Amino acid sequence: MNPANRAKTLRIDRIACTGQGLCGELLPELIDLDEWGYPIVKDRSVPDHLRAHARRAAAACPLLALHLDADRT
Amino acid sequence: MNATTDATPNSSALSSPAHHAPRLLSGLYATGVPATLAEHLRHYGPSAPGTRTSPMSVVEAVEAAGLTGRGGAGFPTARKLRAVAERGGRAVVVVNAMESEPASRKDEFLLTVAPHLVLDGAVLAARTVSADTVHLCLPRTRAAQFEQLSAALDERRRARLDPVRLRLHALPHTYVSSESTSLVRWLNGGPARPQGSPPHTHERGVARRPTLVSNTETFAHLALIARYGPDWFQQAGTPDEPGTLLVTVSGAVAAPGVLETAFGTPLDVILDRAGGRTESLQALLLGGFGGTWLSAEHLQVPLARCNLAPLGAAPGAGVLIALPRAACGLSETARMLAYLAANGARQCGPCRFGLPAVAEDFAALAAGRADPALLSRLLRRVGLLPDRGACRHPDGAAQLAASALRAFADDVDRHLAQGACAAAHRPPRIPVPPAVLPETWR
Amino acid sequence: MTTTLALTGSPLWYASRAGGTLALVLLTATVVLGIASGGRVVPRRIGRFEIGLLHRNLSLLTLVFLGMHVVTAVLDPFVRLSWAVSVVPFGASYRPLWLGLGTAALDLLLAVLVTSALRHRLGVRSWKAVHWLAYAAWPLALFHSAGTGTDTRLPLQLWLYAACLATVIAAVWWRLAKAGPGHVAGRLTAAVAATAVPVVLTAFLAAGPLQPGWSQRAALTPVVLIGGGR
Fold first, then answer.
1. Regarding the domain delimited by A3-70, which CATH topology (the fold level of the hierarchy) does it fall under?
2. Where exactly are the transmembrane stretches of this chain (chain C) (predicted)?
């Protein structure tokens, strides 16, 4: 299967993340923010209808800490 | 330092000659005197693979034995070996002797009495995963041990015993510098702070090569399995968790120290073996500062994963601290949390903000300075620590805090309603290193 | 004198001046938004991510107008510039130093554009390292405008420069005031630059473009210019 069509999961580079909180603004369906602005991932797997939003959130991270991984299965 | 041995195998195996085979701290090593290479070889013979396990490979023997990592996570060692071996190319083996749990002494003790057993295991592992180098990582604070091990390595070099390079390193000693990625990062010239993954250490570690990082004790067990075989190994322990493990017992016991015990031994039996209780006990801390408080009603629980899991606990790195009734569990926990907060690598959100905030809340609770919102805030913050860092440091701290709130629930109510208890004003019972920021990561 | 000369120029010349001025204004806005998002500004009415989006979109718009500025300047028959001048700085026959500053700024912005497009591949460290060049591109663009700009002597244009300068300097000082301890060298450099740029620009405008005979002096080679002879 084409990797682009595979199910996607969110991955956060915890060391790179500085709690800017943009991901939580752009993808509140899957990401909450704690009181310091750091992401709380509610669900790692990205449903198809949120894929574009997830991509936008990953692109918006100023630290490039949010990644959208293609599932290996 | 006191060592007690317990290598009693299952009764069914009593007829087997292997019953008499020594384990980590038995026989020669029970004396507590460092074994020279000559003594070690006289005792065990050479460690060349195939002496007892032929034609089984080391990986197969380890897998059949069911050996798990003794550093705390308890990952199956055979799977680790296989993962590194399957990457292909020259690999690297790292012996993790950092022992950052403040209450643990087992790695230090094992390396003192049986350095060559550990080194045998590391060299065997290196041959198994086609590594040409073994890095032995010690905390910088243990200078005497460093000297002793340099001498042991010289002995082996003179005897031309090993087909691989053995190198000794002294790393900065902080709580998180014992994390496997910290070792890899330091060996690559960086700070001894956790790295996070991917790439995983077994894929790309030291010098970008596949790297096997395991605890000191794990390598010693591996050396014995290669000599005596998996059946012998399984004579101790439970069917699910075979073998023995080293336990460091401290607190209100008559003879605190390191002892070897089989998986499945009830906790109170272990306490008895450490000289027995000196006072009436309130709780046990199992697994160290990143471990779990168990109230005294659970003293008969066997030291085994399946029995401990329902209580939210695990054997961890084998730390057992007996807390007397006269102590204040909340104050002791608050001091440990302050230490853990100061010792975070400050790389991820939970260690930059969450853990220090939890430590502060807990200190206020212990001191009886709680505001009305404290408990709900503390519970929320504790709940947000796990699984949100590059390593498991915040997870361990959360485990400690959450289990303390459970085990000392009555004290929590009392501290909230009436302020700090009398015991909170007495001197602390558990030694905790000062909660100061690490001086260096390099 | 310069003004009257310019007013007789071709439509291309007008387009180039307008494009350049707009690009400067847009670049200023981009830089200010970049500083704001780096300083973790918390806007009241819009989301934080919208600052980032605005930063990105305005930067692209800057490049559009910059493209227009460069293309029309090269096509304009009055100054006769070669295409190479648009990427190789300090090689022009017309006001080599002051034009060259603009070319250098464009090169830096192109580097920033390319690395931003490839940032996921480059990794955050290399990307950010190159991105800092944008801070150098902005004053280069400003001095280029003041030194080559046909309209520099118009009061309205001078007010525009002053406004651009004031917003960026204000943003830098806001960012410095918000910054915590650490990065001492970086903060010191920023403070010195934020003080030096307005002073140097004012002195330069007073001594150069606003004095009679600037068009002759600006045409000279950089070496003579530094001598500053009348």
1. Alpha-Beta Plaits (3.30.70)
2. 12-36, 57-75, 95-117, 129-146, 158-176, 188-207
